[in-house]
Amino acid sequence: MALAKMSVAELEQFLRDEFPQAFSGDDITIESADGQTSLLRQRYSERMLRPGGTVSGPTLMALADFAMYVVLLSAIGPIGLAVTTNLNINFLRKGQPGQDVLAEARLLKLGKRLAVGEVNLLSGTSADPIAHVTSTYSIPNI
């Protein structure tokens, strides 16, 4: 397993300083990040819901992208200009209202210029994913 180049505390401070538009409140927390995987939790809010009472696609996509960004930063260090180049999401089942959403991210390949990973999104304590995401990030040449 790769050694993390940033701890959870370092990631949180970096994100508060450099990316406050995505990480300024207390709705998303980083529960773990080890250079290979990360686990993020988005606390339930009615703002997450779409008509029909399910967790909205934009909420799930944003959380998945953020989880991938966190696992990547934990692996490469504070390189804020790493950017998403591709994100594919498959919605598998309804996210339940009233439940936090968990994002389990995992790096599949980390190269010099590209990183590929996957994210499983879970609703509350259910082990069945509500969505599966694959994502590619471009890593700037520093």
UniProtKB/TrEMBL annotation:
InterPro entries: HotDog_dom_sf, PAAI_dom, Thioestr_dom. One of its GO terms (molecular function) is 1,4-dihydroxy-2-naphthoyl-CoA thioesterase activity. The chain crosses the membrane at residues 66-89. Gene3D superfamilies: Hotdog Thioesterase. It comes from the Bacteria. Keywords: Hydrolase, Membrane, Transmembrane, Transmembrane helix. One of its GO terms (cellular component) is cytosol. Residues 52-125 form the Thioesterase domain. The keyword Membrane applies. This is Phenylacetic acid degradation protein. It comes from Bradyrhizobium forestalis.
